[in-house]
């Protein structure tokens, strides 16, 4: 029962939807996203297991951070590639994120939460999402955003990483508990995860419909 | 200390909500902008369709005009020549050798005239090719047919014959405009003298047609919105971003001046 948390439930639903709706898609992008959700779920479950055994689990999230940053960077690169050649800006973005990641571990222990990388990563992801919207609006061709899978995928990313900005900045400064034993930070992350995975599930539905329409 | 932590927590909670609201407004803005873009896109598509349908209509009208010219020519000219040939050949008396020879010679002249006329008609049948050869040639051909009727005194200054640039869609519309103007003159103007000038100047093609007919009151015709194909002339000129200046005074003739960005 301890393994059942809102984040785990949303990840299971999202993974199931991804496998059913987009795993067979010819675009590698959707397969990578499905694998990422599976890794996220595995990490979450293993972290809960470690916590239940009173073992430190932050090192696990630090490893997961590599997968997270790589996948989101790849996803945003794929979305932006449709409108422009984003190689240079992604080269800079990924360089800064990985550099921050490794510098943090040269100066801190691997069991410390790498909040610096998370903050830097969030800033870059937010900027890429806004750039995507800008290119989308600037583009001459009209797209129906209501059913555009990449748009909703990017929107999910924007909500999650932009919404978590304040929590990242003030991480560790507040430990107020609301709703029983859950901290405010945890509640914010539950909300952000719900938004992220709901939008991703919607984007999978859009992609499936799009694929059916073209086949 | 606990109080401060609560304040920070409250600040984080409120800020997070604000931070979450911002993407919502951003999406609403994108949605609204996209809707405008969609309307613009559909409007553009509609205009393109309208243009294509108008082009098709113009093409049909040019073909129709060509067919009418051919029918008139066959009936009034070639038909008459061949009838006369038949009559001449029928009246030959083989016993009167000299007269028969003269009649056969006459018949031969009539037949060769008919062949000449038919060749001219064949040229006209390639109406589409006329425009392909350039607007200058198409205007020349149109004027030749008008000249052939012999009803009008013509003064022509066509500087477009050696034009190196073309614009197929505009050429077709310009040819149709000239046909329509000439039709109007033939049907309504009662003119004796027609002057046609065409030239290219500063990236614009100019076509001027003046005549000394009975003229009309342009305001009255515009108000009526009915007559003389003027509406379709205006519509087509507007379609290719052209300008039209119409001057007419009852009893003093009419002049139409067209300016079209070219190519």
TrEMBL record, chain A:
Natural source organism: Pedobacter alluvionis
Superkingdom field: Bacteria
Protein name, as recorded: YhhN-like protein
Membrane-traversing stretches: 6-23, 28-52, 58-77, 89-110, 116-137, 158-180, 186-205
Keyword Membrane: yes
Claim: Nucleotide-binding is one of the keywords in the record: no
Keywords recorded for this protein, A-Z: Membrane, Transmembrane, Transmembrane helix
From TrEMBL, chain B:
CDD domains registered for this protein in UniProt: HATPase_UhpB-NarQ-NarX-like (cd16917)
Entry coiled-coil feature ranges: none
Transmembrane segments: 6-30
GO molecular function: 4 iron, 4 sulfur cluster binding; ATP binding; metal ion binding; phosphorelay sensor kinase activity; protein dimerization activity
GO CC annotations, alphabetized: cytoplasm; membrane
Cofactor(s) the record lists: [4Fe-4S] cluster
Keywords: 4Fe-4S, ATP-binding, Cytoplasm, Iron, Iron-sulfur, Kinase, Membrane, Metal-binding, Nucleotide-binding, Phosphoprotein, Transferase, Transmembrane, Transmembrane helix, Two-component regulatory system
Reactions catalysed according to its record: ATP + protein L-histidine = ADP + protein N-phospho-L-histidine
Classification via Pfam families: HATPase_c (PF02518), HisKA_3 (PF07730)
EC number: 2.7.13.3
Start and end residues of each Histidine kinase domain: 69-263
Ribonucleoprotein listed as a keyword: no
InterPro entries: HATPase_C_sf (IPR036890), HATPase_dom (IPR003594), His_kinase_dom (IPR005467), Sensor_HK_TwoCompSys (IPR050482), Sig_transdc_His_kin-like_C (IPR004358), Sig_transdc_His_kin_sub3_dim/P (IPR011712)
Location(s), subcellular: Cytoplasm
Task of the protein: Member of the two-component regulatory system NreB/NreC involved in the control of dissimilatory nitrate/nitrite reduction in response to oxygen. NreB functions as a direct oxygen sensor histidine kinase which is autophosphorylated, in the absence of oxygen, probably at the conserved histidine residue, and transfers its phosphate group probably to a conserved aspartate residue of NreC. NreB/NreC activates the expression of the nitrate (narGHJI) and nitrite (nir) reductase operons, as well as the putative nitrate transporter gene narT.
Name the record gives this protein: Oxygen sensor histidine kinase NreB
Organism: Pedobacter alluvionis
